[in-house]
């Protein structure tokens, strides 16, 4: 599987998550305050709700349901009740295109 365009860089609002689906894989895409784009698994590992509906705070995305904050760089939740990480996908920027390969994830430890 190769990298797929998921959105335009100009579509992303800073500190706001955008939900996309690539090859059936739901992802939450975030442009952080440092201008870096992250893509993590969109499904919370606690209650299977969409993390993209949650809140960006620094380098975390907080689940709206029960407050677990997932690291945008490692995918690990920093607090309970979630304890399993979400996948972190490798993002490539080409011009105004944001590309992600759903088959490629960063190590999460
Ligand atoms: S559903 Fe996400 S922390 Fe409970």
From TrEMBL:
Coiled-coil region: none
MF term (GO), any: oxidoreductase activity, acting on paired donors, with incorporation or reduction of molecular oxygen
Taxonomic superkingdom: Bacteria
UniProt keywords, alphabetically: 2Fe-2S, Iron, Iron-sulfur, Metal-binding
Residue span(s) of domain Rieske: 4-100
Protein name (record): Non-heme iron oxygenase ferredoxin subunit
Source species of the chain: Microbacterium hatanonis
Organismal lineage: Bacteria, Bacillati, Actinomycetota, Actinomycetes, Micrococcales
């Amino acid at each position: 599987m190769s990298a797929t365009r998921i959105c335009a860089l100009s579509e992303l609002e800073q500190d706001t998550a955008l939900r996309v689906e690539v090859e059936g894989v739901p992802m939450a895409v975030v442009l952080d305050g440092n201008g870096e784009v992250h893509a993590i698994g969109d499904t919370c590992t606690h209650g299977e709700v969409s993390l993209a509906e949650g809140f960006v705070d620094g380098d975390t995305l907080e689940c709206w349901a029960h407050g677990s904050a997932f690291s945008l760089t490692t995918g690990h939740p920093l607090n309970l009740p979630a304890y399993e990480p979400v996948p972190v996908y490798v993002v490539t920027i080409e011009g105004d295109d944001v590309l992600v390969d759903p088959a490629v994830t960063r190590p999460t430890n």
